[in-house]
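Quick board copy: two proteins, each given as sequence then tokens.
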Amino acid sequence: MSTLKTQILIAFVLLAQTLWAQTGLDTSSFHQAMKRTHEGLIIIGEAHEVKSTYPTELLIIKELLKQNYQHILLEAGPSEVAILNRYLMSGDELLLDYTRARSEHYRAFIQGLKNLYDEKPFTLKGIDFDRSSCASFVLQNLLSYPFENPVDSIKSDLLSITQETKPKEYKSIIESVKQKYPTYQPYVDSLLLDQASIIHEMVLNPVYMADYGISSQKRDAQIYESIAAIDSATLAKSILIIGSNHITNKQHWWSLVESDSTLASVAQLYLFSYKNCQNFIKRKNYTSSKPLADYIKPHESEEAIVYFESRKNPLEEVPSKPNQITIISLINQ
């Protein structure tokens, strides 16, 4: 290998280690938390794009896959997840350029999921709003057939969605198609076969970016509706990754989960709590606010740690059974 190639390889490895590896994992606490039998929906509450979150989630997911979990629910739309599922199956890195995995840290997470998928396959499912950039790519790939078909009556509407389509316009188009969809769904089924479910989920998705304002209350209600529509057998073998604010803000998503006896009874929670950790988006250190800040592991040194601690019910906001909640303390990352 040439000197230049060697230098490039070393630089890549160092970059990957910087971006990827979590620091100071307390392996004893991790194995203690994961050794118990998990039954029902697992919910992982995170702060997005904070250092060491993604690698720690991959460790959790790897252990849960060993316990026959089969689905991962992402805070993403059905079209983006369709692209990501295709990536998991094909390994085609170019597909990631049409998703949020264009960013280096989320891309590393998705690549980590690919490594786990190669060991034990699973499916991804989207429970949040679609983005026009993802939706247009998927629709162009599924509906660019060269012959006449009854689906043409809704095809022209769907193909009018481009990467530049604004959220309100996107919602208007989908709502219009949704009104006609019961008539055309059988034709979509016969045309697209096993890929028809992608169109179904996109058209019937109750969550819209256009409804995402200063308060996420309306969006949270739509996300709840999206999750509640999933059959119980699938949910029982699913891992949901969602922003922890949806859980700790009692007025939003969690209040709906709490009122749903089925979801509340099966949910087991892993909640990240942070102290002095790098936020990749805001380019400054991040520390959790209350109530999560109250339950982070006491740690006065500057040493970086990742620590798992199961608690009977540390958060009054969260309904719980004994040992259902595990706080994951990320400190000095």
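And the next:
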Amino acid sequence: MKWNGVALLVLLVFSAGCGGPAGLKAADDLALNRDYLGAVKVYDRVLQNVSDDATRRPIEKKLENTKVALVDEYLMQAGEQYLEMGTPDIPTLGIILNSLQSVQRWDDTKGRIGRSIAFYKEKIAKIHALVELYLSKAIIAAYAFEYTLALQVIDAAEKLDPENRSVDFARTRVKRRQVFYGEVLTLLAEKDVDGAVEKFHKLAATFNPHPSLTAAPFAADVLALIEEKVRSLTADNRWHEAVNYIKRLNLPELNGLLRDVRRGAVDHFPRTAETHRKK
């Protein structure tokens, strides 16, 4: 068994003599067996029942030496856990932090436990901030219809903080949008532009603000199919139907097309009326 300097000092101090107030031997035995946490608790109880300074001083010295050994033990354990993580994550850091906080009452005179707690709290805060950054990036990616990227970023956030409910919520929302997006593509492949636009509205409704159709990768296909259908209607002189069709789609991107169709209708009806009068 290897003994560090503090542990060896504790051994020598406790070997220097036993006896004294009730419980002192039990504390010494715990310290000799390297149960430093148990020892400091018993030393503390012993001191509560000792009033004269001559008796207290050697016990206080043993208590302080044992606290140093206890702090060494917990800091070494914390450091090993931290290094074993590779990439720090919230659950493991939480375990380390809880362990240190459990013995903070028995910190040594240098306050090493307190400083270590502050260090790990800062690490946790930075990871929380990084997770929030990842979730923001996922939202931006989803808004740009880049669902694979969004889910990859969410996966990275989950590795850092697997119990974060915001991560689960973000994944659920992105997957729902991904389903709508896939349905839009399927409908477009079937040339069902009306169904595709309806599904796009459902997709857009999951965002605030709603994304523009022109930002979608399939925008050109949708607009081309709509324009094709409008041309077919106007070619058959179904101007009123064409206007209503464009309005029903409720896409700001079609405002220019709507103006053109209305202008065409205005030009068409007088010509038609004049033709009827001549007949």
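Board note added afterward: Residues 73 and 160 are 27 Å apart (CA to CA).
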